[in-house]
Amino acid sequence: MSGRPVIVDCDPGLDDAIALLLALASPEEIDLLGITCVAGNVPLAMTERNARIVVELSGRRDVPVHAGCPRPLLRPLNTGERVHGKTGLDGYDWPAPSLPLADAHAVDFIIATCLAADDGAITLCPVGPMTNVATAIVKEPRILPKLREIAFMGGAALVPGNVTPVAEFNIHADPHAARIVLESGARLTMFGLDVTHKAITTPERLDAIRGIGTPAAAAAAAILTFYDRADIERYGARGGPLHDPCVIAYLLRPALFSGKECHVAVETESELTMGQTVADWWGVTGKAASCRVVTGIDADGYYALIRERLACL
Ligand code: BDR
Ligand code: CA
Fold it and tell me: Which residues contact 16 (CB under 8 A, 6 or more apart)?
């Protein structure tokens, strides 16, 4: 395989599952070295199981799944069953996975994989709380020069939050980990609610996925139908924001997205604004830009890409 070497760190989670399918369906562009799991949308025992279920569905049993941290660094685990259901992957009748978990802890897998790579080679894609990635950076800072980029789903730069008035779920779940990652000096690309709320699963887009006819597309349509209900309730929109696959779509088709470089800080002190991503959009602090904040998306192109890849699985 000649694709870009990537590790996806996730907490599946319905939208995580679509992100994984998109990556697993794209071996020419993405050399998926491994999937690392963290506690987030549901407890770790479920997220690692769900990742194995999705890998099996894709037929890519060559991709190892590693379990990582069972809780955030400092704060208690606060899960998201309201959105993702009790199992984290509700909405479809999944068979139990037979793929075993890989032996190494996710943090050790990230470290060993990065240390074995050339400088600037590895892309890390956290699409859940950043506990594993932050722990890897703290445990072995020599991984930082090995990174090409950390492209993550999380935060809200210019728009309201989705778990508190100002904070997005992934960053709020482990703000201290997010802060370590955002202050790491790695090249960062942020897919926050600014962009993901422009990537809505309208009924027409869902119907188109349902019509593809492959097993992966059938599963995707079922879980996205389940996923929609919570967001339609909350936002009164015509569908849910399909967050995590934005990160993978960006690796495949960067031209679908637009944004701006600016400094982003994470609030870790105030209980009122805990986990807020404070983006210095107009450069008023004079601090050097630390992150590319993505705000624009060609949503039709995004869904066309998802359909194209689900048709291959
Ligand atoms: C993020 O939170 C989770 O519920 C989703 O999987 C996504 O990563 C959106 O705020
Ligand atoms: Ca997620």
Answer: 10, 41, 47, 50, 51, 127, 128, 244
- pLDDT for 10 equals 98
Confidence category of residue 1, pLDDT binned at 50, 70, 90: low
Q: What is the pLDDT of residue 236?
A: 73
How sure is the predictor about 153, in pLDDT bands with cuts at 50, 70 and 90? very high
Could you confirm whether 66 is annotated as catalytic?
A: no
Q: Hey, what CATH class is 4-310 in?
A: alpha beta
How far does residue 84's CA lie from ligand 1's centre (Å)? Answer: 9
Percent of the chain with pLDDT over 90: 91
Is it true that the peptide bond before 213 is cis, omega within 30 degrees of 0?
no
Atom nearest to 193 CA in ligand 1: 10
| pLDDT higher than 90, residue 193 | yes
Q: Are 256 and 298 in contact (CB under 8 A)?
A: yes
The DSSP secondary structure of 90-113, one letter per residue, reads TTS-PPPP-SPPPSS-HHHHHHHH
Taking CA atoms only, the protein residue closest to ligand 1 atom 2 is 169
Ligand 1 pocket mutation, candidates 10, 11, 166, 242, criterion most atoms within 8 A of CB: 11
Cα 302 to its chain centre, rounded Å, is 15
Q: What pairs with residue 123 in β-bridges?
A: 6, 149
Atom of ligand 1 nearest to the CA of 13: 6
